[in-house]
Amino acid sequence: MELHFEAYGQGKPLIILHGLLGSMDNFRSVSLTLSAHFKVFGLDLRNHGRSPHSPDMDYSLMAQDVQSFIERQSIREICVLGHSMGGKVAMQLALLYPESVSKLIVADIAPHSYPPRHRKILEGMVSLDLGHFQSRKEIEAALAPAVPNLATRQFLLKNAVRDGSGPFHWRIGLQEIIRNYPRLTQAITSGRSFDKQALFIRGQSSDYLLEDDMVSIRTLFPRARLTTIPGAGHLVHTENLAAFLNAIQDFLQEP
User: Fold this and answer.
1) What is residue 166's predicted lDDT score, i.e. its pLDDT?
2) CB 16 within 8 A of CB 30
3) Range of the domain at 145
4) pLDDT tens-digit profile of 105-155?
C-alpha cells in the first residue's frame, strides 16, 4: 500500500507515525520544528488521513506499509517516532525490519495488549449520518453523548470533511477500523529483540505507559529507556510540546 506523506527539511531521515483516528496533521508542529535538523516524513497510516482504505489492518501490515515507503524513498538508517497506535507500528517495524531503523522513539504506549477503550468513541462516530449535518458545530454536539470530552471531540472532527459544497463524510476508513479494532488492541510480538537505542516517552498523568511497563518493554527493546513529560497526559505532543521536543532532540543528537 502506498501511504500518503509530506516531507520537510533536510538531513538524516525521521519518520513520524500518528495515533488511532489521527493523521500526520496532528504532528505538523513537531515535524516543522524537527525539520531544522532532519528530513522529516509525516505519514498517514492505512485507513487514516489521505492514505488508502483497506479491509485488513494490523500492526504487521502497517509496519510493512512503512517499510515499503522506506524502500520507495530509498532512505536508510532512519529514526522512527510513533505515538500511541503509531508507536506500536514503530515497534513492529523495528522488530521486523531492524536493518531499516537506527533509533526508535515511542510516545505513550507499551507493546502489551490494551482493553478496547476506544469502543464507545467508534460506536458514537459510526452512529452519525454526517450527510444530514450542515456544520461541524452540529456534528460536535451530536458526538457529545458518546464523547463527553471537548478536546477529544475536536480531535475527532478533523476527520469530518466535505468536498466543496457537498455533504460531510468521514475521511478515515471508519468501518474498516471498527472491523479490525480487536486486532489493534493486541500486543506486539516478535521472536527477536531490537538491540539499538530506544526512547519511550510517557505523559506524567497518562495510564497508557507506566514505569512498571519498562520491565516487559526491555524484553523486546533491551536498550530502552523512559522519559516522563510533566504536565501531560496521553497527548504528550500537544499538552507539553516544549518538553516533548526537548526529549526527542536530546535523544536524536546522541551518538
Assistant:
1) 87
2) yes
3) 119-172
4) 999 999 999 999 999 999 999 999 999 999 999 999 999 999 999 989 999
Positions annotated as catalytic residues are 84, 234
216 neighbors 112 (Cβ within 8 angstroms):
yes
Bridge partners of 228? 202
28/146 same-domain check: no
pTM for the structure as a whole: 0.97
How far apart are the C-alpha atoms of 243 and 132, rounded to whole Å? 42
pLDDT for the residue 164: 82
The pLDDT of residue 151 is 87
- Spans of the chain, pLDDT less than 50: none
Measured from the Cβ of residue 191, the count of other Cβ atoms closer than 10 Å reads: 5
Q: Are residues 128 and 89 in the same domain?
A: no
Residues 193, 72 within the same domain = yes
